[in-house]
Design a protein that fits this description.
about 375 residues; alpha/beta; Rossmann fold; eight-stranded parallel β-sheet; six-stranded parallel β-sheet; 14 helices; about 35% helix
């Protein structure tokens, strides 16, 4: 019996929270039962080598911008039709409507869509009439052409599908999972070297450089810490090289905060940097179920975060400060100072929280929970076993 063929549709399949979650899925899936392939709009995405080493494929398709929109649909149709996929699983927010329609035309019987965010604000706070119309049409197509509807949080599910769909049997609420062990295992270790021996207190922020992740606001917080004479520096890890990152660099120079805010680029040792840090910062405009918050709490870090996403991510051990984005940089700096002085959470408290909220345990559980939402599942709320 041949494996069930799954085609996962996402953007670049580069570095990011959704991509990280999908790699957990691939690493822990039963390869005798599932063949999992990915689309990408990049020539060689960050995860391509690992995907291929694990038996999957990275299939390049055109990006969706401008005139390439219809080209992408045509390319997707041929990939789906020629590949004879049993399941298409789209992670493209509203663009999933076009993906699911294409999958329907290509004869794919089981068409999954996954909600990861409760907003699609680009950071401007404005949305054109054309964008609103596009989203309305795409939401209609998602609900009409989808067969199974997944979400990483309650808010994300309501945003993309509406309240009614979240009570139907083909809706699956599947919290993100992280391999927390590599963060917990650093407890008791003495770190040395980079960022350790210069007398500065490290606060880590993780995320791609974009208006949504709000690193420009971080420069204001760092500026306030400098004004107070605090030796607290914010380490920003994430892929950069875009226009927004240049704006952040310009702000760093303007405020003279080169020592208080460092841009690290993409790092593969986030667990090590987290252990070298005293706190975690996340001032995003919105999130779905941020994996970085789960990782930070697993590392025992006090967290300072925007109250802009589901509190379902909170371990419940008193180490998360929720702030409004309307609050001033000075108030955020107060919270960062407080967090940096709290010390790491008790290891037993973290371990107990991970066991209580078992959806944080790791990739194997994530793979089992997502892939068991196959066409024969009863669906509905998917609790931790």
């Amino acid at each position: 019996m041949r494996p069930i063929k799954v085609l996962i549709i996402t953007g670049a399949m580069d570095v990011g929270g959704i991509e990280n979650q999908l790699m957990h899925l691939l690493r822990n899936a039963d390869k005798t039962r599932f063949q999992i392939d990915f689309t990408t709009t990049m020539s060689h995405p960050f995860y391509q080598d690992e995907i291929e080493a694990l038996g999957g494929k990275c299939i390049r398709i055109p990006a969706t911008e401008g005139r390439h929109f219809l080209r992408q649909c045509k390319a997707l149709y041929h990939v789906m039709k020629d590949g004879q996929y049993d399941i298409v699983h789209s992670h493209e927010l509203f663009h999933s409507g076009m993906v699911l329609l294409t999958a329907k035309i290509a004869g794919v019987k089981h068409r999954f869509v996954h909600a990861h965010n409760w907003s699609d604000d680009d950071g401007t706070g404005r949305q054109s009439a054309v964008r609103k119309l596009y989203n309305a049409v795409m939401r209609h197509w998602i609900l009409h052409y989808g067969t199974d509807f997944c979400a990483c949080s309650t808010l994300a599910g309501r945003f993309l599908y509406g309240e009614k769909k979240t009570h139907e049997p083909n809706y699956h609420l599947i919290f993100n999972s992280v391999d927390t062990s590599k963060f917990i295992n650093h407890y008791g270790k003495k770190e040395s070297g980079e960022f350790c021996e210069d007398g500065w207190i490290n606060v880590i922020q993780i995320g791609r450089f974009s208006a949504v992740k709000n690193q420009l606001f971080t420069t204001e917080i760092a500026g306030e810490l400098k004004r107070r004479g605090k030796k607290i520096r914010i380490l920003c890890a994430g892929n950069n090289g875009n226009e927004y990152e240049q704006r952040v660099r310009t702000a760093i120079q303007r405020y003279g905060i080169e020592e208080h805010m460092m841009l690290l680029g993409v790092r593969k040792d986030i667990d090590v940097i987290a252990h070298k840090s005293a706190a975690f910062l996340l001032p995003s405009l919105y999130e779905g179920m941020p994996l970085v918050m789960i990782e930070a709490q697993a590392a025992g870090l006090p967290c300072v975060t925007a109250d802009t996403y589901s509190h379902e991510v909170d371990f419940g051990i008193g180490y998360v400060q929720w702030l409004r984005l309307e609050q001033s940089a000075a108030e955020w700096a107060d919270a960062v100072e407080k967090a940096a002085g709290m010390g790491r959470a008790d290891k037993n408290a973290v371990v107990n929280a991970v066991e209580k909220y078992g959806f944080f345990k790791g990739g194997a559980l994530a793979a089992w929970r997502i892939l068991r939402c196959n066409p024969f599942s009863k669906g509905g709320y998917d609790p931790v076993p």
